[in-house]
Write a structure and sequence with these properties.
It is built from 5 helices and 11 strands. The protein has 241 residues and is α/β, with parallel strands linked by helices. The two termini are 30 Å apart.
């Protein structure tokens, strides 16, 4: 198996911003103004809020691979939801050495546009978007968990605020398991501050989902465990105490 990162995301909807928004209560105009201000500041520094996405190449399962995880180039900039976003995604696939027609699957963690741009499916004629069957992400088909190869696990991981799932892949040649956590874990800082209630829309669900994810990751028969957060660079980890 091989993993090729198409892009690394950067944090826009971070826990600190969520806390600031919650402090404004039900004042939607103030919340919108805050979001616009923060977006303007982060865009000034080159942060556009995109999520992390990857290309997964695997042997022995041609019905699912090659596959993309959370492939979308939609940015936080409200003016960026145009055709250029889809073109950027297609260019990234081609730069990785694949014809878009070779892509068989899009594994989607949740329906937010920075993780799942449904317009991209029209440019991938042989691809199907999938999520965990218990997550029921809109616009996706349920994965048949019984038919997944042993190196691939899908988990239902609610708590972020929408239907949400996560994916684990084993890369035996590197003695490595990689978990694509989506926005259940948005960044390393988010992971280190799970005791903060503003990290999730549903705190109890979110914490339980992280523990389930970590338990599954720790049970893998690999030496190294890596988490790929939704909006940050990957980091190595170990099971929670």
């Amino acid at each position: 198996m091989r993993c090729h990162f198409l892009k690394f995301g950067n944090l826009m909807g971070s826990p600190d911003l969520k806390a600031m928004m919650r402090n404004l209560g039900d004042d939607n105009k103030a919340i919108d103004a805050l979001w616009d201000d923060v977006a303007s500041i982060k865009l000034m520094f080159g942060l556009d809020g995109r999520s992390t996405s990857a290309l997964i190449l695997a042997q022995g399962c041609p019905a699912l691979f090659p596959a993309l995880v959370d492939c979308s180039f939609v940015c936080a900039d409200p003016h960026s939801f145009g055709d250029a976003s889809v073109s950027a995604a297609i260019s990234a696939i081609e730069s990785a050495g694949l014809n878009p027609a070779e892509i068989k699957s899009l594994f989607i963690t949740h329906p937010h546009a920075d993780h799942f741009d449904s317009r991209l499916l029209k440019k991938l004629p042989n691809a199907t978007a999938y999520s965990h069957p218990d997550s029921g992400v809109a616009g996706t088909s349920p994965l048949n968990l019984k038919d997944l190869p042993k190196y691939f696990t899908a988990l239902n991981t609610p708590g972020h605020g929408t239907p949400h799932c996560s994916f684990i892949f084993d890369f035996d040649e590197h003695d490595l398991s990689i978990c694509f956590a989506g926005d259940l874990i948005m960044s390393h800082a988010h992971f280190l501050s799970l005791d903060q209630s503003f990290a999730f829309s549903d705190v109890a669900q979110g914490k339980e989902s992280v523990r389930k994810l970590m338990s599954e990751l720790d049970a893998r028969n690999t030496t190294y465990k890596m988490i790929v957060p939704g909006h940050d660079i990957p980091f190595f980890t170990h099971a929670l105490p």
